[in-house]
Amino acid sequence: MKKSVLAVLALLFAVAPLQAQDVPHSIAGLRGEATLGGDTMPPPIARTEDSASRRVRNYPEQPPTIPHEIDGYQVTRNANKCLSCHARARTQESGAPMVSITHFMDRDGQFLAAISPRRYFCNQCHVTQQRIDPAVANGFVDIDSLLAAERDKE
């Protein structure tokens, strides 16, 4: 038994270097033609969109995007800068949309007087937007466009 295990291990150690030679030296991916050990200049960070308009959502229950900068916003266990405008009591003076009623529900579907702890950290779902060229082609088509194409075929 020991001899057969040693023979298999010896064979694996002999074959492994042969397989490693088949790997290309550079990988063409999002980094371009740069080698993995090489340094490349990252693209500059794009500016965040800052507009009062709301983006169209692509599917039901999609969280709305944040249409303004949030650099420096503090969201901790004790403070949430987002609620200084989006809290139920502040929307009239701020003009911001109120936090969705679903944010006041616990996991059992019971409504709470304050925002549910599981919905308190806004950036878990809501993100800012930048106008950039996508790194990977995106062929996403929303359901309304698909349904309209089906109606046009008929």
Automatic annotation (TrEMBL):
- Relate the assembly described in the record: Component of the periplasmic nitrate reductase NapAB complex composed of NapA and NapB.
Enumerate the residues binding heme c 1: 68, 82, 85-86
Q: Which GO terms describe its molecular function?
A: metal ion binding
**Could you tell me which Pfam families the record lists for this protein?**
NapB (PF03892)
Q: What does this protein do?
A: Electron transfer subunit of the periplasmic nitrate reductase complex NapAB. Receives electrons from the membrane-anchored tetraheme c-type NapC protein and transfers these to NapA subunit, thus allowing electron flow between membrane and periplasm. Essential for periplasmic nitrate reduction with nitrate as the terminal electron acceptor.
| Compartments (UniProt record) | Periplasm
Q: Which biological process terms from the Gene Ontology are attached to this UniProt entry?
A: anaerobic respiration
The answer on whether this UniProt entry bears the keyword Secreted reads no
Task: Reproduce the UniProt comment on modification after translation.
Answer: Binds 2 heme C groups per subunit.
Q: Which GO terms describe its cellular component?
A: periplasmic space
The UniProt record gives the binding positions of heme c 2 as 103, 122, 125-126
Q: What is this protein called?
A: Periplasmic nitrate reductase, electron transfer subunit
Q: Which family does it belong to?
A: Belongs to the NapB family.
**Signal peptide per UniProt:** 1-20
Q: Which InterPro entries match?
A: Multihaem_cyt_sf, NapB
Q: Which Gene3D superfamilies match?
A: Flavocytochrome C3, Chain A (1.10.1130.10)
Keywords (A to Z) from UniProt: Electron transport, Heme, Iron, Metal-binding, Periplasm, Signal, Transport
